[in-house]
Write a structure and sequence with these properties.
Blueprint: E1 2-7, H1 13-24, E2 29-36, H2 42-50, E3 54-56, H3 62-73, E4 77-80, H4 89-95, E5 99-103, H5 115-122, E6 126-133, E7 143-150, H6 157-181, E8 184-187, E9 190-193, H7 202-207
Parallel strand pairs: 1-2, 1-4, 2-3, 4-5
Antiparallel strand pairs: 5-6, 6-7, 8-9
The chain binds 5-O-phosphono-beta-D-ribofuranosylamine.
Length: about 210
């Protein structure tokens, strides 16, 4: 069995997708806790109806408290899903390789908080999603998985947002499952899967175009 915690500051739609998909399809993974830094986060409501305990981090010593929670729960992965805080260097160093994040663009294009809006305004014809390990920069850690989305220039921003979120919800849980089951090494900026056997690892072959599902 694997256990993970999810950190979210906002709506929590990725958190909900992860909980539902682990319950349905990846049943050896348990979401032990939602951790948030915002008392009004809609993610808290979702945790209540999903029956997942949540913790609201205090304003002071936020990451010390988080560290204590991690020490107690000992999750296999710390999953960021719309957690709007830069993680301090000491925390990243202590947990490097265990903290993952999802970002709504093809990094390194459009890092930061307004990626979808910026990609839309720029008029890009291809954008997508990135799942990466967290380092102490803003959306700069080693890339685990990316998936592209061709953009129709006639879409409005809401349409683009909807398609990006669909991709996030489709891929985050399978990638988390892959990380938990497939051996890999982080070599500098590269995440190398050293053994691609096993169904869980298919997700990384899909991304590389080696295997069309
Ligand atoms: C997602 O677009 C994610 O890529 C970004 O924050 C957003 C969170 O959305 N990091 P939600 O709270 O999961 O609905």
């Amino acid at each position: 069995m694997y256990n993970i915690v999810v950190l979210a500051s906002g709506s929590g739609s990725n958190f909900e997708a992860i909980v539902k998909q682990t319950r349905l399809y990846f049943t050896d993974i348990t979401v032990s806790m939602l951790i948030t830094d915002k008392k009004n986060a809609f993610a808290i409501k979702r945790s209540e109806y999903l029956g997942i305990p949540y913790t609201l981090l205090p304003k002071h010593r936020r990451f010390r408290v988080l560290d204590e929670i991690i020490d107690t729960i000992k999750p296999h992965l710390i999953v960021l899903a719309g957690f709007m805080r830069i993680i301090p260097r000491w925390f990243v160093e202590e947990h490097f390789g265990k903290i993952v994040n999802i970002h709504p663009s093809l990094l390194p294009s459009f890092p930061g908080m307004h990626a979808i809006r910026q990609a839309y305004d720029y008029g890009v014809r291809v954008t997508g999603i990135t799942i990466h390990f967290v380092d102490s920069g803003v959306d700069t850690g080693p890339i685990i998985f990316q998936y592209p989305l061709m953009v129709n220039p006639e879409w409005d921003i809401e349409k683009l947002e909807e398609y990006i979120h669909r991709l996030e919800h489709r891929f985050y849980t399978p990638v988390i499952n892959g990380l938990l089951h497939c051996p890999y090494e982080i070599r500098g900026r590269k995440v190398i899967f050293t053994d691609n056997r096993g169904d869980a690892c298919d997700i990384f072959r899909v991304e590389r175009g080696e295997h069309i599902p």
